[in-house]
Amino acid sequence: MKIDLATFLPYQLTNVATRVSNDFAEVYQTKYGLNIPQWRILANLAQYGQSNAKDLCAQANMDKSTVSRAVKVLIDKGLVKSELNAQDKRAALLVLSKVGQSLYEQIAPDALNWEKQLLSTLTNEEYEVLVSIFEKLNNKLKA
Fold it and tell me: Which of 6, 73, 129, 143 is most buried, taking the most CB atoms under 10 A from its CB?
């Protein structure tokens, strides 16, 4: 028995995710000088307000060393601040600086426009089905 890669879900999802990520990277790489891990951390901190490195690994689905390198660069650029975590002194809390929040607010409209252009190929019904499928697959994978 052979796997048909044209219909094998893991292969197709990886290909689409990689192509989407690489194409979308042009939005924040060229104009704003961020790489993929840096953008993902910036976006997660904008979404969740604050996080520690361990939680960022899970939120952004990245390994510890990638998160660590990206956080260091973001701190060096003044986009992220490391603050003392009163609940766990071993794990610093990471938050966007004012400059980081401002940068995120500049990128967000470009990101939403990029997404809108990509999704314009789908009808509203197809988009709703896609979201439903993602939810079902995510729920199944959590089980």
Answer: 73
